[in-house]
Every structure is written in structure tokens, then in C-alpha cells.
Amino acid sequence: MDTIWAPKLEGTLAGAGRAKYKALAEGIRSAIRDGHLTEGAKLPPVRDLAFRVGVTPGTVARAYSILTDEGVLSAEVGRGTFVATRAAPVAEDWPEIVRLRSPTISDGGQVALIREHMRQQADDLSLQELTFYPSRQGDLPLREVLAGRLSQEALGPISPEQMVLTHGGQSALVMVMQAVLKGPNPVVMVERLAYPGFRRAAELNRARVISIDTDDEGPLPDQVEAAAKAHGAQMLLTSADVNNPTLRRTSARRRLEIAEVARRWGIHVVDDDCYTLAQLEEEGYRAILPELGWYLSSFSKVLTPSLRIGYVATPEGQGKRLSRVAAFGHFGMALPLVDLGRRVLQDPRLPAIRARIQALSAERVRVAVNHLGGHEVTWSEDVPFLWLQLPYGWRSSAFVRAAQDRGVILKSSEDYVLRDARAPHAVRLAVNGQVSMACYEDALRKVRSILDNPVEEMTV
């Protein structure tokens, strides 16, 4: 049965401003501490509690999400949200969780920009856009804008017919595999340390994943060729300009070597470019390998992940194949979302907003480097994460647990290797642009303290 509990927050939420979700989360913690909410108690549905307290459903959902991440609450699909059983004690000094696991974008003005266009869009959308199914013709305006922005020497000429829209970058990966992979046991290749979403997309497509070793210039061409020869590998998944997590850029020479192997064996090379917004410093695989090179990206890391707008620039002759995958899978991108994406991209204020977002991210990267000085850190002001090699005495998993115990969430190197592979003693630390600088620096001080005090001791 639903509880009739509602937090006692008179006056608290009214002055909380943008931190209303924090006040609500603390109200729930207090109710658990005081015994008003017991283990297993079911909390009100999001909309019911929002009505009782006088906030938006999004505020309640965010508070529930934070407490679920902390283990205070548990969410069960189809049943609701409950006070977690055997939850950790909710102490008066419950630490604020600071997530440095995945990059979180600062607001450089994009929120107001998107809101403004959504308001205008509500009046402008036609009957057809609000009542018809999506279509390839309906998303043409956004494809035209993207093709114009992406066409450059580093990527080669791109026509709107070669552009396919997707529900974010991960959706793009899955769709490209659906379009390309064939046979009952397809094989794809990833670098030894690579974005874990590559493996997940491959698993969804029932593909086996093979790890390719790298050096300072990128994936080793001889291993790519060996995988093609021995296993019939059909695809190489890579991020040539910003490897996630190491930040390594594949050299121009290595790209040419990889392209030659790919051409010889018919290997599709998929370049997932999440962080540069096509500001490429080297010629990309799509230009070097026009018949087999795929380029994909999204709004997520450079503007906002909430809109779920991704896109693929396909190789020559592959646009129709990938557009069929989109049509057969979900009919296409919703027309209101497509229209919103076009409006935002064409807004003359966007370049300045992008510059502010980048400047805010770069500032936090510099702050992190200053706090971690003296340790082996790989970083770039243009990339919202750092790769931290751990000192002797620390293993990746133990370090992540120690940080979590102090309220800081990091990502272990184990997340970036195949399950049976050996992971280096390193962690990825991402920029969080949505906590205060004081909170962010406090988290970094905790990380530095843990770095300087390894727990492992030599025994004889």
C-alpha cells in the first residue's frame, strides 16, 4: 500500500531555489532517521508527492534518483520506490555524493536557449508535424544543417542523403552494426582500452568482441589484419581523436595504415567522435576510407544529453541501408525533436554558448590537474575527463571503493577492458559541471588524500 507520508518542509522548499531536490532528499533522509519511514515502506508516486509538496514531478524524480544511487531507496520496475532494506545508516552527516564517473555538462546558456526554442516551437509546429509518423523527408532540414556543418576536408564531402539521425550516439553504434554485420557469428574489434558502450552495442548484435593492442600512435595494424584473417572480423570500433579513457589521438600515419588494412580485408571502420563536435585535427577515416569509413557523434557531450539527438555520416553507398535500419527499427526521429535540433543548431548564439560550455569545462579540468599535481595524469582542456595512473600500492577496484566510501564516484579501468583482460592500475575522473566549485574541489581533495595513502602493504 502507498504510504500517506509527506515530508515536513514548510518554508524549506520555498527558499531552496534550484536545490529543491536536495531539500526534498534531505527530508526523506530525516524521515528515515526519525522512523517515520521504515525499511520496505513504499514512497508516494512521483506525481502524487509533487502535488502534495508543491514542486514539479522532475524535482521529486531527481530526489528519488539521488537516494536510489546512494542506496537509501530502491526502485522496482512496475512496483514503485521503497525505503531500501538493510540500507546503510542515514547519519546526520550523510556525505554528499559527488559523481566524477561520467562528464556532466555545465550550463553555458544552452538551457535557456533550448527553453526559448521549445516555447516558440509550441506555436509553430504544423498539424502534420504533430499528427503524422516520422519520415525521411520530415527530418531532411536537420540532415541538411548537419551535412553542411560536417562537410570539411577532415571528413570529406557529406550530402544530406548520407546523413542518418539516431537517438543519441549509442543508438548510432547499434544501428551501424545492424546495417553492416552479417553471418551467424560476427566479430568486431575494439582497442584494448575502449569505451564500454562499444562492447554493449556488440553484445546487442550478438557479435564477438576482440581486443586490439595499441601503442602511442593508436591500434596496431598487424593485429587488425590478424583478426580479420583468423576470425573474419568485419568492423573496427574506435575513437580516433579522443580515445576514451586514455585521451590518446590516433596519429595521421597510423590512420593511413589502418585504412590500408581495412581496404584490403573489407573492414568497416566506425569512428565515434563524441567530444570534438567535428573540430578534427587529423584527417578522419571517413575521408581516408570513403567506402568503409563511418563517422558518428551526438549532442550529448557537447551540448546536452537530454535531447538524445545523434547522427551518422555514412560511407559512400551506405546511406540508404542505414536509413532502412532506422525506418524498420523506430520509423525515424520524432519530428518535433528534429525541428528543435535544427532550431538550436541554426541559432546564431550557439557558437558563443558552446565556447562558454567549453571554457567552464576547461576550468574544471585545470582545477583537477592542480589538485592531482605530482601524480601521473593525462588530460586536455578540450576533454571533460582525466586518466589517472595510480601510484604503487593502489589497485583500480580498491581505489574506486575507497573513493566511494568518501562520497566520490569514479570509474575503474576495469570498465574499459574485456571481461577476461588485465586492466591497468588507473581510474578515469570526469568533470562534474553541475556541482559548486567548492563541492568539486572538496571531492578532488579527497581523491588526492586517497592517492597519497595507499592501503596495500608488502608482506613476506
Description of the molecule:
It is a single chain. The protein is an alpha/beta fold. The chain folds into three domains: 17-93, Arc Repressor Mutant, subunit A, CATH 1.10.10; 135-333, Type I PLP-dependent aspartate aminotransferase-like (Major domain) (Aspartate Aminotransferase, domain 2), CATH 3.40.640.10; 351-451, Aspartate Aminotransferase, domain 1, CATH 3.90.1150.10. It is built from 16 helices and 17 strands. The protein has helices spanning 20-33, 46-53, 57-70, 110-124, 127-131, 140-150, 169-180, 196-204, 221-231, 252-265, 285-288, 319-330, 335-346, 350-371, 396-405, 437-451, and strands at residues 73-76, 80-83, 98-99, 163-166, 187-191, 208-212, 214-215, 218-219, 235-238, 268-272, 293-298, 310-313, 377-378, 385-389, 408-409, 411-412, 426-430. The strands form five sheets. It has a seven-stranded mixed β-sheet, with helices on both faces. It has a four-stranded antiparallel β-sheet with strand order 13-14-17-16, with helices on one face. The chain has a two-stranded antiparallel ribbon with strand order 1-2. It is globular and about 70 Å long. Residues 87-94 have low confidence and may be disordered.
